[in-house]
Known about the structure:
alpha/beta, 6-stranded parallel sheet, 45% helix, globular
Amino acid sequence: MMADFEKSQLVIIDIQEKLAAVMPKEVINKLVKRCELLVTTASEFGVPFICSEQYPKGLGPTLSSMQSFLGDAKFVEKVAFNCVDEPVFERCLVKSRPQIFIMGMEAHICVLQTALSLLDKGKDVFIVEDAIVSRNILNKQNAINRLRQAGCIITTTESVVFEWIKSADNEVFKKVAGLIKDID
Length: 184
């Protein structure tokens, strides 16, 4: 199944100050750049996006380096690891957009639980593999394997962006080309 911007929505899970502080800095820098590319492209196509924050009182807000491109995000505070267990999150989902693209952290906890629940609700769940992280690479690899076996589509930032854009003559391609070059 290919990504279709008219059917898509993004979910950015818990990319917060105190969680990011325990991750390798280089990994977080790449994660932020990939999120910026996906969110910027999504915004160009009118794709809605939700940004969750796990207990922000304790883990801090979403990274300040992301605030500049998250202007249209619906922010959802939660204490449950699974976003779907937060009623506000469910209300923010656009029912007519079955393709849900997930990025964020941690892969083996909040990303995994949210993705599995969305699958159970009949959604087409895409895991943006190069835009999810865990403190331990083995936990991320295990999560990817479980998510693939459960029926999630494992993809990458560039795959999603180029599937949405479809053609080099698309005006959006010209607008995000600099961001594409900057994600590696």
